[in-house]
Specification:
This protein is an alpha/beta fold and 484 residues long. It is 37% helix and 15% strand.
């Protein structure tokens, strides 16, 4: 069974390349560690990871080629060469440039190299967390192990430049890096192994984790757990909003009301039981409904229709309730230059919607070298600062940020891969989950983080064949696994 992550820790930190260099420099300056000792530990960790991943190599060593760069990543490669040679492996070391650090030079002198033909295993010790740069590289069809980062993959953004190496196994040190999860990172990283070398890790970005206490219910009346209102569009367009409403109810909101135009009430009445219905035909009716202070969370967007969203959005924002804006509401918002947003809003765009809301930031994330792309976390942080509220940018690498710069990554890759989420309506369910948590009194940032984590976990609970309609009903078994 998968280990359930129940809170942030140093294990969940995702340090940038600059932060890793700072962590190591501080350790060396304070004598917590010696660079030569750290390099030896790194080499040992790589060998251990290779043998764990391919245990057959203990008895039948593969012909191995180690590509070493000029820096300390190359130094790690030289340590690996010496350790594998001591085990009786046939190892060729192929430097791309002379070592430039004292530790790498010392380990180059100790490494043994024997020419090999048709290598079966290639170890990429070229750049590590250094910024990718173009150079000539020819590889065979051998298995590939990358040390820290596959060559060509940027540590901070997950973007890659040619030539890029697609590793079967990546062994990284101290903590996983943003680039292992963002953009092209999961595809190029292969199996990710994190080796703890004993240094404390701090970072501005963490892996998302569920807020377990907020999911539990104590005794109380249904109104003690909030009343969520999901606004809905015209007849024949209500499926998305129904899924949002069901997700809000499943995640624990005490009451959920779906608010379509009056003509659409019969359609929803035939499909819903526990979810209440109330007609909203115009902004005035919505304003009257929101006079009831017990309605404490709103969801606008799924199946709403852009024109209806434009009409209802100002009223919803003036109410200053915790509000999720998704889908059509985001398209309507983009035309207003973000007018009316407040700190209790959560924006949940996919990349296309993000580009309509923040075109310059979307462009900055796709810029090609030499103007290196902006990282997704940095772009979402800036979007949240401008909007003055929480922003969740969807993807296999969903990033959530708030105006203070706090950010988390809810990833659906590596050990949490959930490709089945690429299905129509999945985003509508996520919007409903977040709305339900807001109704229960969870803060916008925590509601977005917990909702995104649960969304992925529900997909993993089901597996292949998932449809969006399945997702709300998967919350109960996930809650049981969490001990809620």
């Amino acid at each position: 069974m998968q280990d359930i992550n129940m809170g942030h820790s140093s294990r969940d930190a995702l340090p940038t390349s600059a932060q890793i260099r700072g962590i190591e420099a501080e350790a060396f300056a304070s004598r917590q560690a010696e660079s030569s000792e750290l390099m030896e530990q790194a080499g040992q960790a790589v060998v251990a990871a290779i043998l764990r991943h391919w245990p057959e190599y203990a008895e039948t060593p593969p012909r191995t080629l180690i590509l070493c760069g000029s820096g300390n990543n190359g130094g790690d490669g030289y340590v690996v060469a010496r350790l594998l040679h001591a085990r009786g492996w046939s190892v060729e070391v192929r430097p791309t440039a002379p070592p430039t650090t004292n530790e790498a030079r010392a380990n180059r002198a100790r490494a043994t190299s024997t020419p090999v033909e048709d290598p079966e295993l290639i170890i990429d010790a070229l750049l590590g967390i250094g910024r990718p740069r173009p150079f000539t590289l020819a590889l065979s069809d051998a298995r590939i192990v990358a040390i820290d980062m596959p060559t060509g993959l940027d540590t901070d953004t997950g973007h890659a430049v040619a030539p890029r190496i697609r590793a079967d196994l990546t062994v990284t040190f101290h903590a996983a890096k943003p680039g292992h999860y963002l953009a092209e990172g999961p595809d190029l990283t292969g199996h990710l192994h994190v080796a703890d070398l004993g240094l404390p890790v701090t970072a501005d970005l963490h892996l998302a984790a569920p807020d377990i206490p907020s999911l539990r219910k104590a005794r109380g009346h249904k109104f003690d757990h909030g009343h969520a209102l999901v606004l809905c569009g015209a007849s024949g367009q209500g499926g998305a909003a129904r899924m949002s409403a069901r997700a809000a109810l499943r995640i624990g909101a005490g009451l959920v009301t779906l608010a379509p135009p009056a003509l659409a009430i019969p359609e929803h009445a035939a499909r819903l039981d526990a979810i209440m219905l109330r007609a909203v035909d115009d902004p005035r009716t919505l304003e009257e409904m929101l006079a009831d202070a017990r309605i404490n969370a709103l969801c606008l967007g799924p199946g709403l229709g852009v024109e209806r969203a434009k009409a209802l959005l100002p009223v919803a924002l003036r109410a200053r309730r915790p509000t999720v804006l998704d889908a059509d509401a985001l398209t309507a918002l983009a035309a207003t230059d973000l007018v009316g947003l407040h700190p209790d809003c959560v924006l949940t765009p996919h990349p296309g919607e993000f580009a309509r809301l923040f075109p310059d930031l979307a462009q900055a994330m796709t810029t090609t070298p030499p103007d290196w792309p902006m990282s997704k976390p940095d772009a979402v942080r800036e979007a949240a600062r401008r909007a003055g509220c929480t922003v969740l940018l969807k993807g296999h690498d969903t990033v959530i940020a708030d105006p203070t710069g706090r950010a988390v990554l809810a990833h659906a890759s590596h050990d949490r891969a959930a490709p089945w989420l690429a299905t129509a309506g999945a985003g509508d369910v996520l919007a409903g989950m977040i709305t339900g948590l807001l109704a229960r009194g969870v803060s916008p940032f925590s509601a977005a983080e917990t909702g995104a984590w649960l969304h992925i976990e529900c997909a993993r609970q089901f597996g292949p064949g998932l449809t969006a309609e399945d997702l709300p009903d998967l919350l109960p078994p996930v809650f049981r696994k969490l001990g809620v």
